[in-house]
Design goal:
Number of helices: 3
Helix content: over 70%
Order of helices and strands: HHH
């Protein structure tokens, strides 16, 4: 995963410089949501799970973060496909 996020940031920056249309912006927002949820919630929760072990609260928090990341990824994929067919 460590290699994936820098690649997404670089490709997103390239897209911004190129001037994305609405579909491109949709994809960028989806990627931003997925990366943001990872940085703000999923990664710290994984760290706490490793240190403290699973608790119901931590597992719920991780599942919520995963749902947000999935939603971001789906929005990004829809935007990317729409940009390709437009």
């Amino acid at each position: 995963m460590a290699a994936l996020y820098p690649a997404l940031v670089l490709s997103g920056a390239w897209l911004v410089v190129d001037g994305p249309g609405a579909a491109g912006w949709t994809a960028l927002v989806g990627v931003a949501v997925a990366i943001g949820a990872t940085a703000v919630s999923a990664a710290p929760t994984h760290g706490r799970l490793g240190r403290e072990g699973p608790t119901p609260a931590l597992v719920r928090r991780l599942l919520l973060a995963d749902r947000v990341r999935l939603a971001g990824a789906v929005v990004a994929a829809v935007g990317a496909v729409a940009a390709l067919v437009a």
